[in-house]
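Quick one, probably user error.
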């Protein structure tokens, strides 16, 4: 069966679904399809998310990431309330456990304040104990606006609303190429047969750069997959964590470090680390896609990254292989945690954009083409920001769509 639409969105993760919703809101007369290679929505980054509603603490003031997080936070919480989705604004503490972390903690406070994060408060160790009795620190910060949610449930609600408005969700349709089929028409080749569309928006996540290349674009970055591994805290020890406990992150990396997260189902998760994945969908330690791994190893930006941070990478890999080392890292935050408190958890793979210069790109990267918009990097807090990101992408696509309505 052949399909024809005004706009085809590639990827049924939370960003692609949010983009579909925002297209319908701004242009209610358009026919919109979301094209997904898997047999279900939210199969990758969205479905493996730890479920934190980020407050906007970490991001450089004035950056696109900061602005979208703050507006996206409000939009997400309002959506959850409207649709009765489980969520809780429980707050978190960020703790400094070493003297050398104090300047970074103060910088986080400055950034969060500049971004308009409400209620930030620097804490003494005794103050922290009142919020998280088992946490250890020399100083801390309370972030009361941080929350928790199940992003798979959010994505499913997005999909329901999208389809109720007449949007079409096409599953098991892997995009293999995109070609112009006239001055304002694209032929989107995918498994199950081609699709015609007047415009394409690529929210392909782990394969966003591939989709861009298959559309004739030359992305300025490459997706390099990083696996984040989690443990679950044994239920009877879950009382060690009331809500969320985070370390002060290393400012050189876009990763937040291993932390504790109470989830909406009441379970407590610990992690993640950040190790190179040997496949773009490599959720297991032994998951290898030889051609994808070779692609990473041939990328000049990867070796520039390795030369700069090989010691950090070796440390992450060692922790990946050793529960003892993982527990040791967690004891910086909660000294009572023992190896036997950790039960096997899940893993997620982050689509990390890496530049040719070896720098991990920390902000959103959007590339425009003829009748196309490619979202090449949508890092954390993309789930929190999803509705704001969707609106931002639709604003960019408006340059294309507006020409149809003249």
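Nope, works fine. Designed sequence:
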């Amino acid at each position: 069966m052949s399909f024809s639409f005004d706009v085809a969105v590639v990827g049924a993760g939370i960003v692609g679904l949010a983009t579909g919703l925002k297209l319908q809101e701004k242009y209610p007369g358009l026919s919109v399809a979301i094209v997904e290679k898997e047999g279900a929505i939210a199969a990758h980054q969205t479905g493996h998310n730890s479920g934190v509603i980020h407050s906007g603490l970490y991001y450089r003031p004035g950056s696109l990431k900061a602005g979208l997080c703050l507006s996206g936070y409000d939009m997400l919480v309002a959506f959850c309330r409207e649709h009765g989705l489980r969520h809780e604004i429980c707050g978190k503490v960020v703790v400094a456990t070493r003297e050398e972390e104090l300047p970074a903690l103060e910088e986080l406070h400055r950034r969060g304040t500049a971004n308009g994060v409400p209620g930030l408060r620097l804490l003494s160790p005794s103050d922290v104990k009142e919020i998280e009795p088992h946490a250890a620190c020399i100083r801390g910060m309370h972030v009361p606006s941080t929350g928790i949610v199940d992003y798979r449930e959010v994505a499913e609600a997005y999909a329901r609303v999208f389809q109720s408005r007449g949007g079409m969700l096409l599953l098991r349709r892997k995009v293999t190429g995109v070609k112009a089929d006239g001055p304002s028409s694209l032929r989107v080749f995918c498994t199950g047969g081609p699709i015609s569309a007047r415009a394409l928006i690529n929210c392909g996540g782990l394969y966003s750069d591939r989709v861009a290349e298959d559309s004739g674009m030359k992305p300025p970055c490459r997706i390099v997959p990083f696996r984040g591994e989690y443990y679950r805290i044994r239920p009877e020890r879950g009382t060690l964590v009331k809500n969320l406990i985070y370390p002060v992150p290393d400012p050189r990396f876009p990763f937040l470090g291993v932390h504790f997260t109470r989830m909406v189902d009441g379970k407590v998760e610990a992690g993640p680390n950040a190790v190179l994945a040997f496949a773009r969908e490599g959720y297991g330690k032994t998951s290898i896609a030889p051609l994808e791994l070779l692609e990473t190893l041939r990328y000049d930006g990867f070796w520039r990254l390795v030369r700069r941070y090989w010691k950090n990478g070796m440390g992450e890999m060692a922790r990946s292989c050793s529960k003892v080392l993982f527990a040791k890292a967690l004891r910086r935050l909660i000294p009572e945690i023992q190896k036997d408190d950790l039960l096997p958890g899940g893993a997620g793979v982050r689509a990390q954009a890496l530049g040719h210069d070896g720098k991990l790109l920390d902000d959103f990267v959007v590339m425009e083409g003829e009748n196309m918009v490619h979202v090449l990097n949508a890092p954390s807090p993309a789930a929190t920001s999803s509705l704001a990101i969707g609106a931002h992408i639709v604003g960019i696509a408006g340059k294309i769509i507006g020409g149809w309505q003249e």
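The chain has three domains: 3-46+152-220+363-404, 92-143, 221-355.
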